[in-house]
Fold this sequence. Notes:
It is built from 14 helices and eleven strands. The strands form two sheets. Strands 1, 2, 3, 4, 5, 6, 7, 8 and 9 form a nine-stranded mixed sheet that branches. Strands 10-11 form a two-stranded parallel ribbon. The longest helix is centred in the middle third of the chain and has 14 residues, at 139-152. Helix 5 (109-121) packs parallel to helix 6 (139-152) and helix 10 (230-242) packs parallel to helix 11. The relative contact order is 0.12. It is α/β, with parallel strands linked by helices.
Amino acid sequence: xxxxxxxxxxxxxxxxxxxxxGVGLTRSAPRSTNPLHGRAMWIWxxxxxxxxxxxxxxxxxxxxxxxxxxxKSSDGTSAWSQFTPELVAALHAxxxxxxxxxxxxxxxxxxxxxxxxxxxxDGADCLVLDAETEYQGRYVAAQAFVxxxxxxxxxxxxxxxxxxxxxxxxxxxxxxxxxGPGGAQYDVPQMYWRAIGVSPTAVFAHTYxxxxxxxxxxxxxxxxxxxxxxxxVEQFRRLALQYGAGxxxxxxxxxAHAGEWSAVSAAPxxxxxxxxxxxPAMATVGLHARGDLVVWIQEHxxxxxxPGAVDGRFGPSxxxxxxxxxxxxxxVVDGIVGAGTWAALLRYRPAAITWVRHGxxxxxxxxxxxxxVVRLTRGGPLRLQAPASAELPARGDEIPRGLGAGRx
Length: 408
């Protein structure tokens, strides 16, 4: 109730708020081609963030030069009452961008898509999808969610995926769906270096190597929960600049202390020196690799005219297809997808595939067995069962489970 009064009080003093109602209140929102550009802070539970006092939140955002707030709008099939058109309007009136984020599970993708679209209608500047353990292996559900969401919002509306940072740890996760055509335009990996147990330098190197092949701009999500040392927060920011990130966001407001806030807002020129680095080459993928990154390779090989399986397993048939592709494009023929092969392969769009529960499956009895060949046709998208790699277990959760899920 206190929050409702705070929002109402702010709106009373806002000329644009008095001029109309509903989504129209957001007209004073700051404009940017990318709402993730700059410095953003995540808000999980608004009532636990400065006591839910919107005036304090706005004052804090201004003081620490926060340009975007990423506020939870739903959890699975449940909408959260904290995300409203009035809240968005009040924050827009304070010249803050507002992104909605939803934790999605995949049990009811259609309902989750509806809730995402509802947040967009509430005036959100972008929608962030927090998809983690629950979506591993769920290619059909992921595609249904993306399809139903895009039916309700424009194809150009900014959507971001906030998922696991280490793609190779999660071979069953459908990155190729969430970050593929029609999916999220932005990649916001949860790069919680302290929770993972590595340095900021290590988390950047690993995350970028395996996320870059999906071709989406990366906006690192760092941690200010768990009391990370200020120097590490500052180093994370420095590395983001050196890797060319257009913006950084932080999890999360309600758990940040004074030291973290100071490190997050320090002027770039004052950040401690970090070793000069550049974004690493994309991960090298070859024989016996398994996972969604292999699915991504196989989808591009099909479009490039090299028929083969789409099973997420880099077996002899995929190696042969890569060698044929390399020969046709004047590359070193070694059957390994490295920097040069990635650059050539990603000039092609991935094959259009409709993942279905019952349909043709391009899977072999073992890695060395003959694999059914898939060829592109003019009859529309291929209809295939989820790749065999969708059944692979994760190497482990490099980030703690449950961050962002439930509660409220």
